[in-house]
Amino acid sequence: MPFESAEDLRSPVYNAACQDNLAQLKEQFPVTHARLPNGKNIPLLKTMQTSVCERDCNYCCFRSGRDTPRASLSPDELADAVVKLSKSGDAKGIFLSSGIIGGGIGTQDRIIATAEILRNKYHYQDYIHLKIMPGAERDQIFRAMQLADRVSINLEGPDEGSLSKLAPHKVFFKELLEPLKLIEEIRKNYPPHLAWKSTWPSSCTQFVVGAVGERDIDLLQTSFNLRQSFSISRAYYSRFTPVINTPFENLPALNPWREHRLYQAFYLFRDYKFDLEELQFDQNGNLQLDKDPKMAWAEQNLIEHPVEINKANYDQLLKIPGVGPVTAKQIIQARLHGKIRDCSTLGKFGISVSRAARFVLLDGHHPAYQPGLF
């Protein structure tokens, strides 16, 4: 269950006459389940301050001029709804984005006001993820970071050329990349006691994938650079799905496997010590759809040079298909008590032996492995 995958946000609906009716409130504010960075699952309210928008992004259902129902919430209305859903146990966090109306600065003010009411008036302790609007000012970004557990700003495309096709009136460097840089500078230069729970929030971004011919290698290169330079915790890859009455309505929807492979590749350099150069791309600069990128790398590199389970260090163990950070640590711990000599021991750690067996040695020997036994 990916955390906050692809912003499937719905237009806010709020009827003040129904604010004391919990059943009607739940209908107005649909809640999804999401996984926090610490692994905990929570019911998360994903909504917008307003679905009115003056920008005309070519892929978006809320683009200006499109005939679709619109709604807006005042900070007090939204905070009131969040608190009621929290007290009932129906939502234990909020992801708050917005359409842009009256410019990014005014929109950001309303998002911040909602968070301030939650934290200061209602002493709201649950998770808050705030979207940073294009054009938001430095002081607004700082204030949002004081209130939130996570902040994000969507790059949409991996570079200026892709963005110009997706969102003609967004400015790649000034409106989107500079705020991500500023978020990292604040984390580095200001003491964490100024922030919520004395910890500066994590940051992330999102890309629209499959609409304008961007390549996986470009998406992952930008993601890798953002992680290295600005310490983003996540990149989200939102597969393009055409929306009627938009300029992109006749484009094909993206194969969901491409989105999946991009996530797998991002995790490889975030959690598995891979370098971007180690990933296998086709002649068009894209990942293989029919094979996960870790397996593709192993088949190129480990068949003739298998990893000795009893000698490999942590980073080497992570390169083995079926082995993750937890199981790599379990292997190292188990080796303190003796050599690992058979696949059944690996299976007890929760390792996918069917994925790992071809690429390892156990005490100098290829493991005796029969598919289907583990």
Task: State the main characteristics.
9 strands, 12% strand, TIM Barrel, disordered N terminus, seven-stranded mixed sheet, two-stranded parallel ribbon, alpha/beta, 2 domains, globular, 13 helices, 374 residues
Describe the structure.
The chain has 374 residues and is α/β, with parallel strands linked by helices. The chain folds into two domains: 239 residues, Aldolase class I (TIM Barrel, Alpha-Beta Barrel), CATH 3.20.20; 60 residues. The protein contains 13 helices and nine strands. The strands form two sheets. A seven-stranded mixed β-sheet has the order 1-2-3-4-5-6-7. A two-stranded parallel ribbon has the order 8-9.
Brief overview:
With 374 residues, the protein is α/β, with parallel strands linked by helices. The chain has helices at 22-28, 75-87, 103-121, 138-147, 160-166, 172-189, 216-230, 256-271, 293-301, 314-318, 325-335, 343-348, 353-356, and strands at residues 31-35, 41-48, 93-97, 127-131, 150-152, 202-209, 234-239, 307-308, 360-361.
Strand content: 5-15%
Assign the CATH class of the largest domain. Answer: Alpha Beta
Instruction: Indicate the low-confidence ranges by residue numbers.
Output: 1-6
Major pleated sheet: 7 strands, mixed
- What is the straight-line distance between the termini? 25 Å
Strand order of the largest sheet: 1-2-3-4-5-6-7
Secondary-structure element string: HEEHEHEHEHHEHEHHEHHHHE
Task: Report the strand count.
Answer: 9
* Fraction of residues in H or I helices: 25-40%
Q: What Rg do the Cα atoms give?
A: 23 Å
Question: At the third CATH level, what is the topology name of the largest domain?
Answer: TIM Barrel
Shape: globular
Question: How many H/I helical runs?
Answer: 13
